[in-house]
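#onboarding

Welcome to the new folks! Below is a worked example of what a typical request in this channel looks like: someone posts a single protein sequence, and someone else replies with the predicted structure as tokens. Don't worry about understanding the tokens yet, we'll cover that in week two.

Example request:
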Amino acid sequence: AAPGPRSYTTLRDEAVKLFNSLQQLELERDPVPLMQGVLQTCLDLPPLVDEIYCQLVKQTTEPPAPGGQGDLHYWQLLTCMSCTFLPSPPVLRFLRFHLDRRSRFPASEMAKYACFIREALGKTKGRECVPSLEEILVLMRRQEMICTVHCPGAPACSVAISSHTTAEEVRGHVARELVSRLGLSQSPNLFALYEQSRRREQPVGSATLLADVLTRFE
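Example response:
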């Protein structure tokens, strides 16, 4: 399930807990739940976002085992952070300098993460929810998610989305699919996306990130 409400102590204590979580990340065989926990804390306590970015830059600068499991997990968490939060301008400049240094070695796996993160930072505007477990797994592989949209009177549409894809973009894609499948080129009807659960059904706002909707389903 997606993380629920949490109780927190002081920012200093929570920063120490996050640092301990990052140390533990090196050894985790399944790092996804721990990554989601770090992201949730940063969402709930925004002043810690810069702290985690700085810690991740430190951990990915001259690591003891470049390309090893621990180094890889830090880059993967940095990838998830870049698709969820923007750091403050000074930290963003520091982070981009770090990414540019790594990008000088394009053949390495870490350089591929650096390029992905740099591109993501140009699109991230902030999230309502932290990435779902599924989204984190996809981001760890630098891939896209497949979103299934169920359409009345027509087969479901599968749409590839990123952490930055809005409902408006998906709605446009699905509308084009339906117009083509059902021969509705002359129809004046409009299309809307709805989010449906056992308890409610509601329209999805045009600017809503589909990744946030999927997290709520999780």
